[in-house]
């Protein structure tokens, strides 16, 4: 087994020992779908949703929630703590580079999102007839793009925040407005025009559009793709520039 | 064979000069100590040697290669101050994981045994005591079977028994042929373990010598105190070349002198049938040498 695989598995094991992480990334999205799926109005098909029911849209929102919690709260706090406690520094003294630990964290979190996606869409389909996406590949691409935007922001937070606690505080501060604009509390298609247009340029809303599009088999919106790649490039580059190892 | 060579090392952080001018060499198989007051530049010096920082000027060679050469990371073991692990990783998991980082790792079970961690293998890092964390940290530094081990403040936070156990372990590591660079502020530790010591003060070398040599620099003044069994004339002792000062402190006599002071005094007293009761002898220690060398002028 390569060092990278061992490191990723080790990060997995450590993360799964954190009950809060497991709850919010794997159980909470399922819980959300199950509760909302039993609300009668969720079965309605408002014209703004282009043929989808409210519950169909919420499958993506529930997954977006998991991505947001990982990208804005979980990962930045963990990485900032790794720096704060000298874990990255210890890595620097071994033949393994500290970058590999960051890569293992990213891989582990991405894998968690994918597991969560399978769980969410399976339960949503079996229990509430949420359609199986026309193109699963487009959905996968949508999820990956959503993660790349969210994780790049997370890396930048980890780079800028001096401690794990500050990283968590800033992440939480960003989490609520971004999740609101992405339609966690009300589908963004039902929001006033202004909020929708602002939302277009936020990563979670753009990711949400891509995931809903994949569900109905529409070709992906270029604006959403551009926005997410923009976050990846800009936040990613800034994170690389500002990341401190100690 | 020279294992570490530091020549005119200088390093500043912004306006603060951490190391001004430090040079020394460490020979193979040596236990070499770096002593100095807080903020003297000890940690910066070892961090430059370990390749964690780049020197502003000067030259550092480790095992024949420039410090920071990636090839050195597998050949040097480093234990840093304030370097922790994830709270939820167990001792065993950490040892296994870090073993995988090295091309030629030591048997981690054996190391855990040597460091008294066998009973703690299933304990998470966050639940370990300060001493246990420190011992795990030392174990991680030795996992790669390093040729050189750099240990920064290795016994800080250990209780006296654990400290003595660690000293035994360090001697054992040297016996395996590992060259050791120790940063410490415990004089007893330096005196007991180190073959040679460099004293760093205000970013420069204040002295470089064996522990004995450093103590001699503090002067070999000795102080004897005793209660004589019978009175005697002071001249009996002040006539001795070894004796510099004699004073009466109630029933006791205090003598300050040098050379073979104790032997000279006892012989004279014995000749006159006087017994020196409650006898104490104080000699200069590395503590005195340290204070002497790093006293602010």
Gist of the model:
Chain B: It is found in: Cell membrane. Chain B: Residues 4-227 form the ABC transporter domain. Chain A is an all-alpha fold and 246 residues long.
Q: Overview of this structure, please?
A:
Chain A is mainly alpha-helical. Chain A has one domain (3-242). Chain A contains ten helices and no strands. Chain A has helices at residues 3-16, 19-37, 54-84, 87-92, 98-128, 136-160, 164-182, 193-200, 203-216, 222-242. In chain A, helix 1 packs across helix 5 (98-128), helix 5 crosses helix 6 and helix 6 (136-160) runs antiparallel to helix 7 (164-182). With 297 residues, chain B is an alpha/beta fold. Chain B has two domains: 2-209, 3-Layer(aba) Sandwich (Rossmann fold); 217-294, Alpha-Beta Plaits. Chain B has ten helices and 14 strands. Chain B has helices at residues 42-49, 91-99, 108-114, 130-142, 160-175, 187-193, 211-217, 235-238, 261-271, 286-294; strands spanning 2-13, 16-27, 31-35, 57-62, 65-66, 76-79, 148-152, 179-184, 196-201, 204-209, 222-228, 243-249, 252-257, 276-283. In chain B, the strands form three sheets. Chain B has a six-stranded mixed sheet with strand order 6-7-8-3-9-10, sandwiched between helices. In chain B, a hairpin with a 2-residue loop joins strand 12 (243-249) and strand 13 (252-257). The radius of gyration of chain B is 24 Å and the shape is elongated. The model of chain B has no long low-confidence stretch (mean pLDDT 89). The chains are: A mainly alpha (246), B alpha/beta (297). Chain A binds chain B through residues 1, 3, 6-7, 10, 13-14, 17-18, 82, 85-87, 89-90, 92-96, and chain B through 50, 52, 70, 73-74, 76-78, 80, 82-86, 88-89, 93, 97-98, 100-103, 140-141, 144. Chain B: Keywords: Antibiotic resistance, ATP-binding, Cell membrane, Membrane, Nucleotide-binding, Translocase, Transport. Chain B: GO terms for molecular function: ATP binding; ATP hydrolysis activity. Chain B: One of its GO terms (cellular component) is plasma membrane. Chain B: It is found in: Cell membrane. Chain B: This is ABC-2 type transport system ATP-binding protein. Chain A: This is Transport permease protein.
């Amino acid at each position: 087994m390569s060092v990278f695989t061992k490191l990723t598995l080790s990060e997995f094991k450590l993360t799964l020992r954190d009950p809060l992480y497991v709850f919010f990334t794997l159980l909470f999205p399922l819980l959300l779908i199950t509760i909302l799926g039993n609300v009668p109005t969720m079965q309605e098909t408002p014209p703004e949703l282009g043929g989808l029911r409210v519950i169909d849209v919420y499958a993506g929102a529930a997954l977006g929630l998991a991505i947001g919690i990982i990208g804005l709260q979980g990962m930045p706090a963990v990485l900032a703590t790794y720096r704060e406690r000298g874990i990255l520094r210890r890595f620097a003294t071994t033949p393994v580079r500290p970058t590999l630990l960051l890569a293992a964290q990213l891989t582990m979190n991405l894998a968690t999102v994918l597991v969560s996606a399978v769980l969410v869409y399976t339960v949503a389909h079996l229990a509430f007839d949420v359609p199986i996406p026309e193109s699963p590949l487009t959905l996968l691409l949508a999820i990956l793009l959503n993660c790349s935007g969210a994780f790049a922001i997370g890396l930048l937070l980890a780079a800028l925040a001096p401690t794990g606690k500050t990283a968590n505080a800033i992440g939480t501060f960003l989490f609520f407005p971004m999740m609101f604009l992405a339609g966690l509390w009300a589908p963004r298609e039902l929001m006033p025009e202004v909020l929708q247009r602002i939302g277009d340029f936020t990563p979670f809303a753009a990711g949400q559009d891509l995931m809903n599009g994949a569900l109905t088999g529409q070709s992906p919106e270029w604006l959403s793709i551009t926005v997410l790649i923009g976050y990846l490039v800009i936040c990613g580059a800034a994170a690389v520039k500002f990341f401190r190892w100690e | 064979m020279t294992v570490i060579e530091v020549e005119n090392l200088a390093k500043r952080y912004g306006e603060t000069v951490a190391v001004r001018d430090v040079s020394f060499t460490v020979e193979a198989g040596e236990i070499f100590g770096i002593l100095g007051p807080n903020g003297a530049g000890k940690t910066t010096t070892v961090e430059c040697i370990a390749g964690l920082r780049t020197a502003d000027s000067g030259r550092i060679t480790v095992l024949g290669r420039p410090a920071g050469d990636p090839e050195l990371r597998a050949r040097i073991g480093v234990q840093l101050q304030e370097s922790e692990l994830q709270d939820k990783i167990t001792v065993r998991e950490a040892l296994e994981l870090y073993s995988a980082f090295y091309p030629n790792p030591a048997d981690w079970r054996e190391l855990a045994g040597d460091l008294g961690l066998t009973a703690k293998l299933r304990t998470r890092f966050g639940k370990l005591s300060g001493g246990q964390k420190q011992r795990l940290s030392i174990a991680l530094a030795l996992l790669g079977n390093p040729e050189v081990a750099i240990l920064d403040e290795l016994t800080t936070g250990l209780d006296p028994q654990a400290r003595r156990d660690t000293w035994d372990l360090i001697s054992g590591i040297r016996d395996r042929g590992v060259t050791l660079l120790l940063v410490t502020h415990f004089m007893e530790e330096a005196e007991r373990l180190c073959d040679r010591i460099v004293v760093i003060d205000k970013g420069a070398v204040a002295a470089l010598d064996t522990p004995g040599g450093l103590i001699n620099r503090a002067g070999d003044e000795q102080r004897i105190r005793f209660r004589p069994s019978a009175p005697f004339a002071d001249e009996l002792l002040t006539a001795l070349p070894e004796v510099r000062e004699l004073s009466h402190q109630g029933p006791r006599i205090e003598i300050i002198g040098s050379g073979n002071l104790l032997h000279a005094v006892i012989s004279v007293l014995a000749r006159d049938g006087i017994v020196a009761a409650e006898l104490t002898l104080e000699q200069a220690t590395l503590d005195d040498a340290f204070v002497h060398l790093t006293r602010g002028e």
